[in-house]
Amino acid sequence: MSATALHPSELPEQPSEPKNYLNVAHTIKSWLLTGDHKRIAILYLFSTGFFFFLGGLAAAVIRYELTSPAGVVLESETYNRVFSAHGIIMVFLFLVVVIPATLGNFLIPLMVGARDLAFPRLNLLSWYLYMAGGTIVLAGMIWGGIDTGWTFYTPYSSMYSNTNVSLVIVGIFLGGFSSITTGINFIVTVHKMRAPGMTWFRLPLFVWSMYATSVVIILGTPVIAITLLLVVFERTFKLPIFSPELGGDPVLFQHLFWFYSHPAVYIMILPAFGVQSELIANFARKRIFGYHFVAFSSIAIAGLGFLVWGHHMFISSQSMYQGVVFSLISFLVAVPSAVKVFNWTATLYKGNIRLQSPMLYALSFIGLFTVGGLTGLFLGSMGTDVHLTNTYFIVAHFHYVMVGGTVTAFLGGLHYWWPKMTGRIYNDGWAKINALIVFMGFNLTFFPQFIAGFLGMPRRYHYYYLMPEVQAYHIMSSAGASFLALGLILPVFYLGASLKNGAKASANPWGAHGLEWETTSPPPTFNFVETPVVTDEVYDFDPVSEYEQERATQEMVHPGTPGLLTKDGELKTGDRE
Amino acid sequence: MWSNFPLAPPSASNFAPEYDFIFYTLLALTILFTLIVGIAVTVFTIRYRRGTKVDRSRPIYEDLRLELTWTIIPLILGLIMFFFGARLFIHMKTPPPDAQEIFVIGKQWMWHAQHANGVRENNTLHVPVGRPVKLTMISQDVIHAFYIPAFRVQYHVVPGRYTQMWFTATKAGVYHLFCGMYCGTQHSEMGGKVVAMDPKDWANWIANGGNTVPPMTMEQAGHRLYNRLSCNNCHGAESNLRAPSLYGIYNSKRSFANGGAAIADDTYIRESILRPHNRLTQGYGPTMPAYEGQLSEEDVLNLIAYIRNIGGMANPATPSPTNMQNVPVQSARTNGQNPLSYGAMQFDNPSSDPTPTNRTTNPSVGAIAAEDRGDR
């Protein structure tokens, strides 16, 4: 096996094990110089996993520290660095990146029936930019640390913080270009490389949502990049932009920051919507209800998402009239999200639902995202926002959306496409238990924070001895966080074990619908032996005939026995005709 | 046990009832929609799970009426909630013209409030109940947020510009005061309390220069302490077997049991209070308890101020070199003219702090730190 052997056609035939993208070459070089979107997705999977682990470690320290009103082990200076590290790593190095760069990279060419993304080398460059950015961010956190929180509000970040703000910002700046290149790649691929017959309305909803995400990424990311660079200029050269001491305007920073960072929320959640649509359709065995509405709601969210940034700034001293407009549009942008939830729910109606582990994640996503979305209304409504903003209420709200939404969807998607990515079947029993652990641990962690926030517990507080009455909620939250941590670590083990012991996966182990399931698991380097031609509609399931087929199969296996095989393989004898 | 799980903050301002009405309405809507979605998901999942023998014929994949229903109903509900939220916010941003104005300065990491008549306070804000109060706020360094949960008000305190907020306290009591906006190392300690007082008490408080009781002269404070420690049990108007009288003792010559002699100046009186057995007055035994470690230097100074003039027998003819120059002329109570020359920056008795802790809440820590910043 040589490092240059990237083309399967050049290799001798090995009929015992067909060549796929994983076993085509094994050298480190073959991974680091690959142009294969699937290998780059795996590189991203490991690197985002690494950063998620670091961010989770910071979260664990925070939760431990908050069990006592006067802190446990840390000094305030350290605590502030830890929560800033948690926010910055999770937002910029995990949530923004994870679904597009791992699942998106892996699946978009497969789903549209292409051999690769439009620009494979640009794709590899994006991974290097991400790694360079991530390394610089970590270096900044190790040498000097950063204590501004992930929001970098000026003039604290530009004039007052004595930490290594500039280095971290340079890292985020670089990482931003990784997002931009990925976004461009996706847009071009979806426009130009769809297989024959793959019309826009035959695209899986995951592709729609990744497309919407890419548009937001390439419009929004340059703004945050230049804004953060301006902070560095003010820190380094005393360029008067944000600091009133120099003649600047501190609130200007917030406008620029949120102009990106609110759309960034949609960069984080839109891909999750896409995963969610795939899971619901494929495990309910039914075409998604209101396909067009779900597809266009993604576009509506992407568009309106750019017009609501000021709802982060109701009490920031922006004009009251500005606030009214932002609040109004925020209520409008809530509607397409609600439409999606209702459509997913309606898809279940008259389905033939398989309750395997990816579906459990998808169902818990519906519950958690509903709570996360509805609590957003408390914050979009100007009057109620005044008391709740800057408190644990907002912390709970965005964790319901970001962890309950994005992380749950990512876990669901990872479980769903794992057999395709690795060619192995994992233990679904463990995976189901894990889905329950994540759901319960998550709620125990973040639900108490809604109450603590309503009581007035401000966020980013190291000590809360000024209001010890919230301690019980903090302890509940920390206990829940231990469960949640368990639920996030367990998959490493049972998914890892499947690589060694798992059964080999067929091309389509779930019986799902979509081009990615028409090639082998794992797919060959160029995805399809022949360019697929798409003739059927998306999610072309038929729950009725499927039910009939299953019944017929059961008749063959147990002839003469009335009743049906349940999902657990038990006979139900009550179902006589 | 349930007292460990409070569910709502106190409601103590004019905004709180309206606020809570909107909050609980939104909460009801949240619960309603979560239940609708949750129940639908659960029922469908159980009913249509794989292998159940139910009617799956004629599934619907798109239905415009249904889509419009669940677009328009949330939209209308949302617009109604938007209206109430915006109305409350506009109300919060429109202080009445007769509001009492108080000025607030935020700095790393303390709140500084200044009342119109010059009374100043740190990390505490005293406000009258039933009267609108308008805060005009500015920051000296980074962005802070002045946040009173019980009043449901919060607003950013920004360097380089004035921001305003207003409220009317409706219930007397002591409430939390926080900094809501992350502002650096001691952000979580930049807080204190808001004391909402009966208007009459507040008027007294402000007239007394920021104190609930009229400030005492040092002499008065010393007199009170003298009685509280029962010094007068032994040291009465006349010398007795146990102790010499202190009347006229100041600046008089004392001779001691061990043979020495000295003028009873401030230093001697201090020593005789803290370590009386060192220089016992001739003719007396070591019966007086030593007060070392039990009195603060402030207490001792107050006692000395009282002893100087005890029994109205001041002896100003021979002032000692260490004679204190700042004996107050008049108390605020007696002249009522200028209560502000002292008493500013007074704190209430620290033991009444609503949230005692093992960490220091001494604002001077923040003040010093803020000064360090000043040279930037």
What descriptors fit this protein?
heterodimer; A: 577 residues; mainly alpha; 2 domains; two-stranded antiparallel ribbon; 4 strands; 65% helix; 1% strand; disordered N terminus; disordered C terminus; B: 376 residues; alpha+beta; Cytochrome Bc1 Complex, Chain D, domain 2; 3 domains; 5-stranded mixed beta sheet
Polypeptide structure, described:
- The complex is a heterodimer of chains A (577) and B (376).
- Chain A has helices spanning 28-32, 37-65, 76-112, 120-142, 156-160, 165-192, 205-237, 250-284, 291-304, 320-348, 357-380, 382-388, 392-422, 428-455, 471-501, 543-557, and strands spanning 424-425, 503-504, 564-565, 571-572.
- Chain A is an all-alpha fold and 577 residues long.
- Chain A folds into 2 domains: 25-541, Cytochrome c oxidase-like, subunit I domain (Cytochrome C Oxidase, Chain A); 542-577, no CATH class.
- In chain A, the strands form 2 sheets. A two-stranded antiparallel ribbon of chain A has the order 1-2.
- In chain A, a hairpin with a 5-residue loop joins strand 3 (564-565) and strand 4.
- Chain A starts with 27 loop residues before the first helix and ends in a 5-residue tail after the last strand.
- Chain B has 376 residues and is α+β, with helices and mostly antiparallel strands.
- Chain B has 3 domains: 9-48 and 63-92, no CATH class; 100-214 and 355-373, Cupredoxins -  blue copper proteins (Immunoglobulin-like); 218-330, Cytochrome c-like domain (Cytochrome Bc1 Complex, Chain D, domain 2, Orthogonal Bundle).
- Chain B contains 8 helices and 12 strands.
- In chain B, helix 1 packs antiparallel against helix 2 and helix 4 (218-228) crosses helix 6.
- Mean pLDDT of chain B is 82; it is low at 316-376.
Summarize the helices and strands and which ones pair or pack.
The complex is a heterodimer of chains A (577) and B (376).
Chain A: H1 28-32, H2 37-65, H3 76-112, H4 120-142, H5 156-160, H6 165-192, H7 205-237, H8 250-284, H9 291-304, H10 320-348, H11 357-380, H12 382-388, H13 392-422, E1 424-425, H14 428-455, H15 471-501, E2 503-504, H16 543-557, E3 564-565, E4 571-572
Antiparallel strand pairs in A: 1-2, 3-4
Chain B: H1 15-47, H2 64-92, E1 100-107, E2 110-115, E3 120-122, E4 124-128, E5 132-139, E6 144-148, E7 153-157, E8 163-168, E9 173-179, E10 192-197, H3 199-207, H4 218-228, E11 253-255, E12 261-263, H5 266-274, H6 297-308, H7 332-335, H8 363-373
Parallel strand pairs in B: 1-5, 4-10
Antiparallel strand pairs in B: 1-2, 2-3, 5-8, 6-7, 6-9, 9-10, 11-12
Helix pairs in contact in B: 1-2, 4-6
